[in-house]
Amino acid sequence: MSVVRDLILQADDQLRYPSGGELRSMVDFLNGGARRLSVVRILTENEKKIVDEAAKQLFTRKPEYVAPGGNAYGQKQRAQCLRDYSWYLRLVTYGVLAGSTEMIQKIGLEGAREMYNSLGVPMPGMVEAMRTMKEAAITLLSTEDAALAGPYFDFLIQGMQTTT
To answer: What pLDDT does 98 receive?
Structure first.
């Protein structure tokens, strides 16, 4: 769930105290808390802007998604797509806060194939949607902050690719 928890559990599993290196990792993680919170604040406050830009990019690249017969054709279907984009953006913020991909894996990827397949949503489209969401989000962040958030988007994208 978080770097600190994971390091403590690892030491406990081995019936030992955390090593000096593990303690330094914890200090580094804790010292980066303000920066992680700042990144999450930017992503959270700009959720609508990020989601709208991601959808605009996706539907420009893949106009067949919003054409008659497409998975995002019609107001209801498009609204459901945008809802999912917001949900995945929220999962990325959880990862940034925790310094861990565990919640993205547990909440966002496990079962994604089954859910989207049952709804007839093509996974390659979701992968592309997550790429456009990353692009939209990264433009709002400094280079340093983008480097912090980027791996969580990448984990999500990679996880969706393996479910295709």
So the answer is: 93
pLDDT in tens, 9-65: 999 999 999 999 999 999 999 999 999 999 999 999 999 999 999 999 999 999 999
Q: Where are the beta strands (DSSP E) in the chain?
A: none
139 plus 78 within the same structural domain: yes
| Type of residue found at 139 | T
Q: What is the mean pLDDT of residues 144-150?
A: 98
Q: Domain tally for the chain?
A: 2
Q: Cβ contacts of residue 97 below 8 Å, gap of 6+?
A: 36, 37, 40
- Token couple for 143: 């280079």
Determine the number of helices (DSSP H) and then strands (DSSP E) in the chain: 9, 0
Q: Same domain for 55 and 101? A: yes
pTM, two decimal places = 0.90
**Residue 44 CB contacts under 8 Å (≥ 6 apart), including other chains:** 93
pLDDT band for 156, please (50, 70, 90 cuts).
very high
